[in-house]
Write a structure and sequence with these properties.
Length: about 325
């Protein structure tokens, strides 16, 4: 396994991490989760990602039960949660957002579900237009000082909002954001590569990126439609189906087909190649993997073997293929 610092912090996270989005609590139960988490840990993965809203809290319960049952050394892994959407089926106004109250309540609930004494990473899952940024910064600072959280950050915030949170923290001698969790793949690049560019050096921002396969599109499995049992066929994720339907979907699939053709030419599976491409960006601290089967996780882990093959010439060919 390859390890990288989380931005400017001293935390060494595995370059490949493992998350529970759209898997734990839906298509993955406790038995499968136990096999996958054990496989990931044995491969050197030391960061496990989760959120209050994943399967309405069930994903965190499953992960917490497995981590407790396997008795991995607590000082050998990091676990995260995210706050914003809430865990209730229909959250009331106080059960969502980034108010001081919900931030604290969500942290306490995540600790119980994950069965840990502290969260290594705690993300503000989306910006909250109803809550002043300074209120959220103060709430996160208090959780860190209380020993409930070690590092806090954001997910899908604008660069301006992250910079504002950092400015507020510095002005009041508070603990500011250390990391951002953005979507990043060959099909979704602008924010990581351009918008956040000034933040990597000015505040030392780390990134734990999600959806390196663009919800499975970059594997090529949607070339002939949406297979039953796939992520795009999951109820509640109809928004993902739009990526492969209509005019925009046709253009996206054409880009994917050029990429998978290049992968075949290089003698590589498209999935690990797409993940390795993400890892080739030195601003990426960790790429979060999702899997429902051990063989799928094993294949994605081979991205570490593919990474050394992505030289400047190969990267240029990949970039040209996807436009």
């Amino acid at each position: 396994m390859l390890y990288r610092r989380l931005g400017r912090t001293g935390l060494q996270v595995s370059a490949l991490s493992f998350g529970a989005w759209v898997t734990f609590g839906t298509s993955v139960g406790r038995g499968e989760a136990r096999r996958l988490i054990t496989q990931a840990f044995d491969a050197g993965i030391n960061f496990f990602d989760n959120a209050e809203t994943y399967a309405k809290g069930e994903a965190e319960k499953i992960m917490g039960d497995v981590l407790a049952d396997m008795r991995f050394p607590r000082d050998a892994y990091a676990v995260s949660s995210k706050v914003f959407f809430g865990a209730a089926a229909e959250p009331s106004p106080m059960q969502k957002g980034l108010s001081r109250k919900h931030v604290r309540d969500a942290c306490d609930a995540a600790l119980k579900r994950l069965r840990v004494d502290y969260l290594d990473l705690f993300f503000c899952h989306r910006p909250d237009p109803e809550t002043p940024i300074d209120e959220t910064v103060w709430a996160m600072d208090q959780l860190v000082r209380a020993g409930k959280v070690l590092y806090w950050g954001t997910s899908e915030w604008s660069a301006d909002a992250i910079a504002e949170a950092d400015r507020i923290a510095k002005a009041h001698h508070l603990i500011g954001p250390s990391m951002e969790q953005p979507q990043y793949s060959l099909l979704h690049r602008e924010r990581v590569e351009r918008e956040y560019a000034p933040l990597y050096d000015t505040i030392g921002l780390g990134t734990t990126t999600w959806s390196p396969l663009a919800s499975g599109l970059l594997t090529g499995k949607y070339a002939a439609g949406i297979p039953a049992g796939s992520r795009l066929a999951t109820p509640g994720y109809e928004w993902l189906q739009k990526k492969v339907q209509g005019e925009e979907g046709a253009a996206t699939l054409a880009r994917v087909q050029r990429f998978t053709a290049l992968a075949a030419e290089l003698g590589l599976d498209p999935a690990p190649l797409a993940i390795a491409w993400c890892l080739a960006n030195p601003r990426v601290s960790s790429v979060i993997l999702g899997a429902t089967k051990p063989e799928q996780l094993a294949q994605n882990l081979t991205a570490l073997d593919v990474l050394p093959t992505i030289d400047a010439a190969t990267k240029a060919r990949i970039d040209a293929a996807v436009g």
